[in-house]
Specification:
alpha+beta, single chain, 21% helix
């Protein structure tokens, strides 16, 4: 059985004017995440799933303990690495379960079809898709942003700056390079 790894996660809203100052200060202490491109950042696009009552959203907004949210994620607009994720919060700690999926599986998730091949799915994917299907989760919103990530391995510390955050309801356009977005 896999050991659940939990971490602390703190989020702060800062002004865009503070970002260069903080980047300058952090640069001497931490290294850029090895996954960044030449420009020191990468693009993240996530498709979030929720039920008809938007329970995942409201649980998050209300700080409900023992909550989960489900998302599908790609990086830099590429389908080379597509992941399905469940992020859990328990007693102020976060835990993420990630499963790589194929483009074909991702297209089915976009249509809300989760269990067509459940019998042949690997166990990790089953652990994600069964609760999604049972909870009536469906795709609801795309969130797009640019991340500047720093890591400090010795203390298992990660600091990220997320900029250009936007959302879209153009769910069928998840893999399109450009989608209609709102800030």
């Amino acid at each position: 059985m896999e050991e659940k790894v939990y971490r602390h996660e703190f989020k702060y809203l800062i002004s865009s004017a503070h970002i260069p100052v903080l980047l300058y200060r952090i640069h001497g202490l931490m290294r850029l995440d090895p996954h960044v491109g030449e420009n020191g950042r990468y693009q993240i696009r996530s498709l979030y799933f929720d039920d008809h009552d938007n329970s995942c959203f409201y649980d998050n907004e209300n700080g409900t303990d023992h909550r989960s949210k489900y998302r599908m994620r790609i990086y830099n607009g590429s389908d080379a690495r597509i992941s399905l994720e469940r992020k859990r919060s328990e007693h102020g700690m976060k835990q993420k379960e990630i499963c790589a999926i194929t483009r074909d599986q991702a297209e089915r998730f976009l249509r809300g079809v989760y269990l067509r091949d459940a019998a042949v799915q690997e166990k990790k994917l089953q652990r994600l898709t069964v609760p999604m299907a049972a909870g009536g989760l469906r795709p609801v919103v795309i969130v797009d942003y640019t991340r500047i990530p720093y890591v400090y391995k010795e203390g298992n510390v990660r600091i990220t700056f997320d900029t250009g955050i936007s959302s879209s309801n153009a769910l069928g356009s998840f893999f399109d390079p450009e989608i209609p977005r709102r800030p």
